[in-house]
Write the structure tokens for this entry.
Amino acid sequence: MGSIQQIIFMVLSVIALASALGVVLSKNPVTSVLCLIVTFFAIAGHYVMMNAQFLAVVHIIVYAGAIMVLFLYVLMLMNLNAELEPQKRNWLKYAGAISGGALLVVLVAALRDASMPAMSTANNDIGLVHNLGMVLFRQYVVPFEVSSILFLSAMIGAVVIGRKED
Amino acid sequence: MPVQYYIFLSIALFCIGVMGVLMRRNAIIIFMCIELMLNAVNLLMVAFSKMWADAGRVDASSAQLFVFFIMVVAAAEVAIGLAIITMVYRNTHSVDINILNRLKN
Amino acid sequence: MINLVWLVPFLPLLGFLVNGLGRRSLSKSLVGIVGSGVLLASFVISLLIFFEVKAPGFSAQVVQLFDFIHVGSLHIPFAFQVDQLSALFLLIITGVGSLIHIYSTSYMHEESSESFARYFAYLNLFVFSMLILVLGANYVMMFIGWEGVGLCSYLLIGFWFKNNDYTNAAKKAFVMNRIGDLGFLIAIFFMITQFGSVTFPEVFAKAASLGMNNSVITAIALLLFVGATGKSAQLPLYTWLPDAMAGPTPVSALIHAATMVTAGIYMIARSNILYTLAPHIQTVVAVIGLATALFAASIALKQNDIKKVLAYSTVSQLGYMFLALGVGAYGAAVFHVMTHAFFKALLFLGSGSVIHAMGGEQDIRKMGGLKKYMPTTNWTFLVGCLAIAGIPGLSGFFSKDEILASAFGHNPVFYVLGLAGALMTAFYMFRLYYITFAGKFRGTHEQEHHLHESPAAITIPLVILAVLSIIGGYVGLPEVFGKNLLAEYLAPVFAPSVPFAVPHHLSHSLEWILMGISSALVIVFILLARQKFANYEDTGKESTGLGKALENKWYVDEIYDAIIVKPLYELSRFFRDTIEKAGIDRLVNGIGRGVQWGGQQVRLIQSGQVGFYIFAMVIGMIVLFVIGFLL
């Protein structure tokens, strides 16, 4: 069993990382968006692997279904393509890549020796809607309501900002 | 399967996001890289949730709820952020973030 | 009545507040009435208190108003002590003060109404402070009054503050006094640490229990004496007093002759036990007093400014008082304070009358022959001169004689030197009198036309003071003539010293001889002065040698200037130019400039390039992680 899970993990990880690099490196913004969607699907796969089934579904609906469509919509509305893509000077690109890599090295080095409880391969049901609903509406009712207000105000804000001045 | 795998995976995703932010000037791509970073964190949350649930903690599903809240915030952010980018594009016909330094005057 | 003693200083304070606050709105006559009225009322109360104190069997009373300082075991009440000494001083201050206030209403009448009120406000404040000084029941209260009179002296010397010389004189007086005040203050601290108290009875009782020649008492006595030399213009701190004549003449009469400068004598007389217990310091006091008396008298011989002569005469007379204190004749010192207050106030007011008539001229070489123009001023001034010279029968004779007799008992050398000073006094006073009032007028024609006798508000105080100068001495007759009422009256104040003092008793025949010698010599010197100056002509010749040194006051001001003032100026210039400008200024400005420069450099980082900000943020994160986790 373990080996199958590890194989799935590896495959999903490679897909996620490769498509994430695609987001960053592709010249065409539309390709970037599509790569990002692939990454999100890979991450959703990881969620399923970790018994977060409901979260995986929500993740796909919200990210891939809503947010990324919004991105794509805006991109196409602006009619951006590789030719119009603003480019940084080369040395700035290298500096960015190097500092990002340095961050990676530092973080890995920092967390390399962290000791943590191991994950078992056994299933559990913490990710079921039933459990999540219990916790959400018992412990986190107030943050939930607050976040709904946040959403509402973000919606109003988007409308106000996007309005044509007349 | 050690939880370190997930930690390193999400560090890698996060750093790719950071690199994207540093290397690109297109505001929309930068935005997408931020989403990538958020998702790296979400992934880590879920991994820890699973880890603690296996260790027998009853409140482990809280971590998954935080993922929901992060999603909420990300969605709100995208709504506002894209609205702003649209406005900037409408006024400047560009999504280059360096154009925004006009604000300094 | 004793319980109402607080009214005595309170009334002048009220006058100060009314005149000071209402100086823009009150009319001159109202100001004069308020200013003089409060003092007359104080005088009446003082008189009533005096009679109560004079009654036999009276012992000192302390009237406590409130707690002034109460810290730990130190307890300083705001209290007034009424005894023979303070009651006598109350009479002198309020009595002479009232006369001088009345005199001022006329003398200062040409001032604008605002500065007229300011003048009276200061004068009332001065009287208030002086009364606090003599009434205070502890050294701290005395110090409050001491500082108050110093302040008023400063304000009144510089009353015409638009004249730079006058403000400089005021500053000089203030700084000189400050040197003395420091001594007084340290003495108070000494008392607090050594005795734990500053109230008179406690300090004296504790001092008496320490016995003779105790180093603590010696130190306190010396420090108090330093304070006294400042306030009472003794060597080496006397130079401010002649310059203090810059103030209005009534001020010179009240503050710089009759009252404030006697504060030092009051203090030492009050602390008599401390001095009796420290005979070495007593000798110092006597020597300094005698030196001052001679020194100032010699300067007075050649001065040509009418007020300067009187100022040096004051310094000289104060020297006599210190001589008396130094030889243990505290009663004689207080007696001389009283008679001196009468005749020196008289002389100053008389000189004020002359200056008033001469239209502000103070140089006696330009006067002369005023006898026929100003008869009242003339005869009162003559009385004053006779009294200060020590003609038998007038007040100055008795007090000076008592001092000289005590000095003889202590040490005949003191007597001889004291007598020499007295003869100089007779000589310069009559030089002043003859040059001013005898001979013929030497001023301009216009001045001659303007000459007139002063109004009643000026002459009445003169007459009263002249009468007092004549009869004031009979309260302290020497033993050969009968009872010394004043000595008897003051005896309780000086009683604590008696067991420690060395008595000097002169035989009656010796006293007669001394009196005879001094009287005869004084008359000889007066005649000498008459012969030399009765028909004085201003030849305009420069004096040479000793005369020139005397005219220039022994060059003391110049010496002080060279050895103290100039180096201090140099030092402060060094501090200003080098330490302040080159050091502190440059440091402070350098910090400011450095911050400005740094800000300018850092400002360039704020380029507005979002990419750069993010880049910096990531670098910062890396650094933080490295510091937090890897180091």
Notes: Chain B has one domain: 4-104. Chain B touches chain C through eleven residues (CB under 8 Å). Residues 12 and 40 of chain B are 8 Å apart (CA to CA).
